[in-house]
Design a protein that fits this description.
- The chain is mostly helical and 138 residues long.
- It has one domain.
- Helices cover 74% and strands 0% of the residues.
- The longest helix is centred in the last third of the chain and has 25 residues.
- It is elongated.
Length: 138
């Protein structure tokens, strides 16, 4: 299965990663800024200072997630757009959304279900986007 690394279209992977990172910036910094603060119990508080970890960490996580999807798409020989969408939904809902809720359900998140509901659309959308880009550029 790991021999598929040579078959990955690295340009497609880069496009998917950059697109997902840009969407993350728009989603979290513009679209859901205030609700996100509420979900974290930080409404009215100043935004935390940006650090290298908070700026580059998400990019690295997006890269790892997209690379994992690329490996699975190649290993499963997914070649149609419909199957790419289905794969993206399975990963987006079955792994990414489920993990978001699992992470949030702890005493440190004052509104875990709200937090999960705010994050889930981003993860599902970018999972589908990543899968479609990777398959379209195979």
């Amino acid at each position: 299965m790991f021999s598929v690394l040579a078959d990955i279209n690295w340009l497609a992977l880069a496009i998917a990663v950059v697109a997902s990172f840009v969407i993350a910036g728009v989603w979290f910094a513009v679209v859901i800024t205030k609700p996100y603060a509420v979900a974290l119990g930080r409404e009215g508080a100043p935004a935390p200072a940006q650090t290298p970890v908070t700026m580059l960490g998400p990019l690295l996580c997006i890269l790892v997630t997209a690379l994992t999807s690329a490996v699975l798409i190649e290993a499963l020989d997914i070649t149609s757009t419909g199957d790419a969408i289905a794969f993206g939904l399975i990963v987006g809902v079955g792994y990414l959304t489920a993990m978001t809720f699992q992470i949030a359900i702890n005493p440190n998140f004052p509104r875990p279900l709200y937090y999960g509901a705010l994050n889930a659309p981003y993860f599902v959308a970018t999972s589908v986007l990543t899968s479609v880009v990777l398959v379209a550029m195979r």
